[in-house]
Design brief:
The complex is a heterodimer of chains A (about 450) and B (about 300).
Chain A: H1 22-37, E1 47-54, H2 62-77, E2 81-88, H3 94-104, E3 110-114, H4 118-122, H5 131-136, H6 147-150, E4 154-155, E5 158-159, E6 162-168, E7 170-174, H7 175-181, H8 192-202, E8 215-218, H9 223-231, H10 252-266, E9 290-295, H11 299-305, E10 310-313, E11 324-333, H12 340-351, H13 353-360, E12 366-367, H14 370-375, H15 380-389, E13 392-393, H16 403-419, H17 426-442
Helix pairs in contact in A: 9-10, 16-17
Chain B: H1 2-37, H2 54-61, H3 63-94, H4 101-113, H5 116-127, H6 133-145, H7 161-187, H8 191-199, H9 204-215, H10 217-232, H11 236-242, H12 253-262, H13 267-301
Helix pairs in contact in B: 1-13, 3-7, 3-10, 4-7, 5-11, 7-10, 10-13, 12-13
Classes of the chains: A alpha/beta (about 450), B mainly alpha (about 300).
Chain lengths: ~450, ~300
């Protein structure tokens, strides 16, 4: 472990923060004072390294206990240093809150960067280029990490985050429900037709009518999940440059994909229509009332805890090569970091194989460090995920700043279609939404 | 003369902290937002070109923003009259000299001291299909009276019902503060007026209609205006419970502003929309003042 010299000087690669009007800075300075006043108190002579992470600090999990142990190990290696983790709860709140802290000048030194909202940070001067740190540091090897995962935070020659862990999206299936229905387990390279056939055979209707007691597939109107149906049909949301939805989101391939999804709910009734979901927040796959679910690695923690006998397989495709998405978390140093060199030591520490193996053993994700990931090879479920990495693409949010807004438009569109009871044709809704996306992306 | 000046000077000193606070944290940000409204202003990008009225033009060309204005007006039109009537009714009840009335007053006030986020979570559970409190009670009714009320209604997922649920929740949240203000107004009405009315044979509804209500007019004005302003600023329950859905039926102006600022980072547009909301509130409040002041004057002359 290299010696950390916690000096406050930035290094060559950092960019100066954007200049702003003096009046605005004054206001933010006032707010920062307030924020500082209710922040943490540091002992004299102690260096506090602030690390932002998402998730609620209120719920103490065994994983958080593990993270604390790892933090204490880092602190033991760096006497006089205290790592202060700042948990930011609320889905969708993490990026806005951190960007506001950046503007207010109270930004933590290190942030966890979610690939789905990375563009807003990378492309607005919020993060430092890490290449100078990597080049200076003989102990750190970027080749240790999965290349297409590293690529998420790359912009030309610059690199803005070191990947921590990631997950491709896969199809989980409940082995018991498949066995009971006498349906063979899905195999890699399966098609939409095979998926629909399995889903229909796994759906159980009550004898007296009404919504199914058991669904073939657990559908949730959450665009980060359902965008995969566009991809596995050769469609997409945006053109390769990430600027235009018209001609992509409303292409025949994309329309066919959404029509397939809508039919799952309205024609075949093999997936729950939003109005049939009886208890909001309850996961039907977890309750063993849905036989298949399209999710990421993190669900394994819950499935194991609930004792579900599950398998995983790549996504079914419709006449195209297998494809999936990588949802990833990386560590980045902010331009306004007070202790950038110490921050780099922290990132190096957190991404090394020994620490990674301990972190991902919980089932959270796959380590982006190949050596740590290799440690879990041979486990059939893990092998499915490793297999899927080669077809995995970064999410649009890694390069398109307003993509979270696009995902909101997509969610509203699907809601519109499903609630219109067939009055709003899929094609019309998607053309309309493609125009809305273009307006949202193109304007400024 | 000299004495008067010294008094003024002291007054300014006492007013200074509040004035400085308001200037720094209210008036300055408000003026700054007005400045931003006429610029293309990305939260994080350094250049902010002047665009004139372009933000205003774009927002009114956006059918979803017009929809959000419409939804806000529907919410205000439903929640304000219902909110005022229910809280006035409760205030009249808890003004009665009944044993344990303090307990009721406290109970009705509890929602006002709770976090809106926590209450929104509670209401999500109240409104759930089958297992939610409302649907559960429908189930009980069905069992006792052999009725056939559906118990699977997912209120927050049905257009129409979702807005109704938000209005219902607003009645409950706003009840306490409005009730307290009405109660203060009722208790300041001299008892002798009621005695005089009783001598004239006026009872019950008549007492309320001809004494309580007219003398509550100034209180009523205050409650109506503040309730209206709060209704225009609906945000938390929408953010927690419906996210503007289903089918944008609960996408209100403030939620729309939030999305503009925090999902599109377009704080210039968000500022412009805030000023539109401000104008809407101002127009309605002035209208209410005018209308009710005329009412006050009429009462005074009769």
């Amino acid at each position: 472990m290299g010696c950390a010299s916690p000096d406050d000087s930035g290094i060559g690669g950092s960019r100066p923060p954007a200049t702003r009007t003096a009046t605005l800075s004054l206001l933010w300075a006032g707010l920062a004072l307030l924020a500082g006043a209710c922040g943490s108190e540091s002992e004299p002579g102690e260096v506090v390294l602030r690390v932002a992470n998402w998730g609620s600090p209120a719920v103490e999990t065994s994983f958080m206990a593990l993270e604390r142990q790892i933090r204490e190990q880092f602190e033991a290696l760096h006497p006089g240093v205290r790592v202060q983790v700042e948990q930011i709860p609320g889905a969708g709140q993490y990026a806005p809150k951190l960007l506001m802290m950046h503007v207010a000048g109270s930004m933590p030194d290190v942030i966890h960067l979610d690939a789905s909202s990375a563009a807003a940070f990378i492309d607005n001067g919020v993060l430092r280029d890490l290449m100078p740190y990597i080049e200076r540091d003989p102990e750190f090897n970027l080749e240790d990490f999965f290349e297409n995962v590293v690529a998420i935070a790359r912009r030309g020659e610059r690199l803005y985050a070191i990947p921590l862990d990631f997950t491709p999206m896969v199809m989980y299936y409940n082995k018991r429900l498949f066995d009971e229905a006498g349906v063979p387990y899905p195999r890699p390279g399966w098609s939409w037709d095979e998926f629909l056939d399995a889903a229909r055979r796994l759906t159980v209707f009550p004898p007296d009518g009404g919504p199914p007691l058991q669904y073939g597939f657990n559908f949730e109107n959450h665009m980060p999940f359902w965008v995969l149906w566009l991809w596995t049909n050769g469609g997409d949301v945006l053109d390769p440059s990430g600027r235009q939805a018209s001609g992509n989101f409303d292409s025949p391939r994309s329309i066919e994909a959404v029509r397939f999804l809508v039919d799952l709910m309205t024609t075949w009734h093999v997936a729950p229509h939003p109005k049939e979901v009886l208890t909001a927040g309850a996961d039907l796959f977890l309750a063993q009332r849905a036989a298949m679910d399209l999710k990421g690695h993190w669900m394994i923690i819950n499935y194991r805890a609930s004792g579900i006998d599950f398998g995983a397989v790549g996504l079914p495709t419709n006449g195209v090569e297998p494809v999936t998405v990588i949802y990833e978390a990386g560590l980045a140093i902010t331009t306004k970091a007070r202790h950038p060199d110490l921050a780099w030591e922290y990132i190096k520490f957190m991404t090394q194989p020994e620490i990674q193996i301990r972190r991902v053993a919980s089932g959270l994700a796959i380590s982006a460090n190949r050596h740590a990931a290799a440690h879990f090879a041979g486990n059939p479920i893990e092998d499915v995920f490793i297999q899927e990495v080669q077809h995995a693409r970064p999410p649009w949010g890694a390069t398109v700043e307003r993509y979270p807004f696009v995902e909101e438009l997509g969610r509203e569109m699907l809601e519109d279609i499903l609630y219109s009871e067939g009055e709003l044709p899929v094609e019309q809704a998607m053309r309309q939404t493609a125009r809305l996306i273009d307006a949202a992306l193109g304007k400024r | 003369m000299r004495h008067a000046q010294r008094t003024n000077w002291r007054g300014y000193v006492f007013a200074a902290p509040a004035t400085v606070y308001l200037a720094l944290f209210a008036f300055f940000p408000m003026l700054f937002a007005l400045w931003m409204a006429f610029h293309r202003w990305h939260l994080l990008k350094p250049e902010h070109p002047f665009v004139g009225l372009a933000n205003f033009g774009a927002m009114f060309a956006d059918p979803f923003f017009r929809g959000a204005i419409w939804n806000t007006l529907i919410y205000v039109a439903c929640s304000v009259p219902l909110g005022v009537i229910t809280s006035l009714a409760v205030a009249v009840l808890v003004a009665q000299p009944v044993r344990g009335v303090g307990v009721f007053r406290t109970l009705y006030y509890i929602p006002a001291v709770s976090s809106q986020v926590a209450m929104s979570m509670v209401w999500i559970w109240i409104l759930l299909p089958e297992v939610g409190l409302i649907n559960y009670l429908f189930g009980c009714l069905n069992d006792w009276l052999h009725t056939n009320i559906p118990t699977g209604t997912n209120f927050l997922a049905r257009p129409g019902w979702a807005m109704a649920a938000l209005v219902a929740m607003s009645l409950w949240i706003g009840l306490g503060p409005r009730m307290i203000i009405f109660l203060a107004g009722i208790q300041s009405i001299p008892e002798r007026l009621y005695e005089a009315a009783a001598l004239d044979g006026c009872t019950g509804w008549g007492r309320f209609r001809h004494i309580t209500l007219p003398l509550l007019a100034p209180t009523m004005l205050f409650v109506v205006v503040t309730t209206t302003i709060a209704a225009f600023q609906l945000f938390t329950p929408v953010y927690i419970m419906t996210r503007g859905g289903p089918r944008r039926t609960t996408d209100v102006v403030l939620y729309h502003i939030y999305k503009e600022a925090w999902q599109k980072f377009d704080v210039g547009m968000a500022s412009a929309m805030s000023y539109v909301l401000f104008a809407m509130i101002l127009i309605v409040a002035v209208f209410q003042f005018r209308l009710m002041r005329r009412g006050l004057e009429l009462e005074a002359t009769t």
